[in-house]
Structures are given as structure tokens and as C-alpha cells.
Fold this protein.
Amino acid sequence: MRQHSSYWAFVVHRVSGVALALFLPLHFWTLGSALQLDGSLAWTQQPLVKLGEWLIVLALAAHLGGGLRVLALEFLPWRDWQKSLAAAAAALTFAVGLAFALAL
Amino acid sequence: MTYKTQARLWIAQRASAAVLAFCVVVHLVTIIYAVRNGLTATEILGRTRGSVAWFAFYSLFVLAVTVHAPIGLRPVLSEWLGWRGKSRDAALLVFAAFLAWAGMRAVLGVFA
Amino acid sequence: MKVSVKRGDSFQEYEVPRQASQTVLDVVMYIQRVLDPTLAYRYACRVGMCGSCAMMVNGVPRWTCRTHVDRVIEKDALTVAPLRNLPVIRDLVTDMREFFDKWARAKGQFSGSQTRSDEFERVPPQSEPRQLADAGIECIGCGVCYAACDVVKWNPQYLGPAALNRAWTLVNDVRDRSGLERLRAVSGDAGCLACHSHVSCTERCPKHLSPTAAIAGLKRAVTKAVLQGDL
């Protein structure tokens, strides 16, 4: 029952959303604090932090892709190839994730 | 909470989503650009401090996030944690307030 | 083959001979008529028209009379359970009352204003509202979509795909006069806005309807009504 693409799209969208909601307070706080102290962000060079950054960017891209899919489903005229939207969302996520990984 | 408020929350969620789609694309491009060109924190701040356009953009970003994240969490809390009612909504309001405060603090730090 | 049937809190196993073109309903009927007369289950037409025989087959809601064993059997074994998300009366029989109560709560009833002495209302079959309504009116209330929906599982108040699909057909019925009342009924946390577009309902509907499309339509109608100040 849960083996179809739209269901996975939902799970990815929700999990990435929760991850972002947990990360953002930390992100805002760190930016606000570090810059007040003296702009010292040297600890962000550690590999674990870099991996974390990549995962966050991936989560952001995944959530954006999934969100565009939902907006399309809800507000655009209905078509029967809705499943392609899930695929398009996944492709977008992958592309962004790759771009960021190459940049790191 | 009346059905009217619930409907308004849903609409605000979708509207903020549309705003965020734009903001996130700009943000991702900017971040990837900065990382690819190996910009240091000092260099980034040199470009961002005093910029009215960036300040306005990221303030809009923070506002959209403050609306979108708490409303987005609302069904997750009820559906997966069984947390419903006034206490859940009050907690989400507190979360929204924190996001707004911490977000603007960061925006002021980077762009003011 | 081994057939595990959910009875109460546990599964009971039966050994059932395989036949050509056997359906899952054939299997259940064999168990009750030959092996264990105490098994309770529902069916009526047995030809895919009434929806009474809907059950969970290997974890998926289906019409058992239209499910060939060959298509769903896994390693010579089958699991049959009552429809999900509904209280169980006994064995494979569920209590459908809540399913239909939600139908009523979603204002899934037609409410007109003409009498027999008025002229017929003219509804062009090719008009957009009529086509939208026609796309959803073949629903026979079998409950498969309701069983497939995870939001129904997670949110006990959620009206569900069938009720909302019916509400949408009525929103598009130009003869109906309780449009705003209906939109109010489907606009809360228990209504169309709770749908997360898993699309499981559309995946499983044996009549190939799309409650997801109907619910998307309701979302747009509710949005429009709120923004215009009608709601």
C-alpha cells in the first residue's frame, strides 16, 4: 500500500521539513552569535560540519522539490501523470545536492 | 480554533511556500556560489554588510519561514505524536516567536 | 496454499487448495463453507459491482471478488484481514457506520430547491462542472480508499477520501443549493485541508476514481471562498 512514488515523495517532504525545522533555530542562533563575537566561523571547516551542511542543503532541495509538487497538485489543473511530478521533485533534489557536493 | 482560522492557516502555509520557493532558490544559488568561490566569512560579510537589498530579501525570508515552519509542523505533531489542541498551538506560537527573534538577530548581524 | 485470516487479535491459518482463476473471495468462501463455518465475512454480488467484499489482502485493501489469487500470492501464502481504519464487528466484518457518518458530515447529500412543478434544470453534459462531477460519481462506498488512507489512520476526525470525493461532486452539481454550507463542512482540520496528497486512495480505488483530484478541487474552492470572504 505504501510502495508508490507519491507516498515516498510525501515521506521525504515531511522528514526533510522536520529536519529543517529543527536545524533553523540552530542556524539563526549560530549566525547571530558568531557574527556578534568576531566573525569567527573556523569550526565550520571540520568534516563533520561540512557533511552536516551538505545534508541540510539536500534537505532544503528535497523539501523545495516536494513542495513544488504539492503546489502543482493542489493548484494546477489536474492531469493523470501526477507521478511524474514526484520524479521531477526527486530529480531537482539530486541536481542541487550534486551541485553543492561538487562545490564543497 | 474555528474552521475559518484553520482554513486561513492553510492558505498562509501555501502562500509562504510560494514566497519561500523564490527565496530558497536565491539562497541556494548564493550559497553554492559563495562556497564554490571559496569566500571566507570576512569576504562574505564585506559584501553583505550595509546592503539594503540583501537586508530586505533576508528579512522577507525570515518572515516567510516564521509563518511556514510552525504551520508545517502542526499536522506532524498531531498525526505522528498525537499532540492536539491549545497546548500544541501555543507551543507552535512560541516556536514562531523564537524564529522571528533569532532570525532578525542573524539578519541584523549579517546585513546591517 | 496457506491462508492466514485475521480473527480478532490473532491470525488463524487454513490450508486451502488452489484452483484455476481462483479469487480471494473464492478462498474465503471455501474456508467458511468447508473448513470453518464460524468465520464471519461479507459479500453480495461477487462480480465487482457492490463493493461489499472489500478486505485487506497481503496488507492492501482490495475487492476480494476481483482479486485473482495468482496476482497477489506471495511464496504460496496469503493474508486476509478486515478493512483497515474501521472498527471490527467480527473476523473480517467491519462496522461501516463511521465511514457513512463522515459522508454525512462532509455534506455529501444533494440539496436542491426545485419541485415537481418546476421546469427541469438544464445541465449540459459537456459543461466543465458536470464533467468534474461525472469523474467522481461512480463511487459505490466500498471503503477501500478509506482503508488505504494513512491520514485517516493518523487523524481519527479526518473525513476521508470517499466523503470528500462525494462532496466535490456536489460542489460541481449546479442544481445543488447548499454550496457554502458544504465548503464550511470540509474546510476545517478534519476536512480537505488535512489531505497530504499521498495519493494512496487514487492508487487503490477499484473504480479508478481520483479522490486526490477531488480533494485538490475542494482545496481550491475553499481557498477561493475564504479569500472572497464568503466562508
About this structure: The longest helix of chain A spans residues 5-37. The radius of gyration of chain A is 17 Å.
